[in-house]
Amino acid sequence: MSLANDAVDVGRLLDAAADRIGKVRYCWLITRDSDGGSRSRPMGRLPRDVGDDPWTLRFLTDGRSPKADDMRRDRHVSVIFQDDPGEAYAVLVGKARFVEDKGEIRRRWMSGYNTYFPEGPDGSHAVFVTVDVSRLELWIRGVTPEPFGMSTTVLERDGARSWHYRS
Fold this sequence. Notes:
single chain, 167 residues, alpha+beta, 8-stranded antiparallel beta sheet, 4 helices, 19% helix, globular
């Protein structure tokens, strides 16, 4: 597949990425620590709300955790997905923000979260992290250029929230 700027089917790339990512339950959240290094943590992605932008990710964490400290200091994060059976790998880059309003946390709370926060939504330090994705780096067998894995396909969002291929 040739990826000349004017010939790229951005919709096909987005659909393929969404399909492969949708099959992956866990991912890696990468934050920047206070020393300028990076920290990686496995995370379980939460379901999207109806009508959510497909490139908005949501996680649940303890608002006092080191990862929360990292994201409060620097909102830029990366999230890595790996679908081995589909030979697909994706890095999603964006900015994190916190949902700390107790009313919103109660509205989104699911009983399964009690495993991690037995005090429930009101008695815990649970917060939701929302990542607004602005960049995708993709390697998807049969979709991105061959030989597979030799080059990165990059899509970026502009100010109007439209996706564009970046060579």
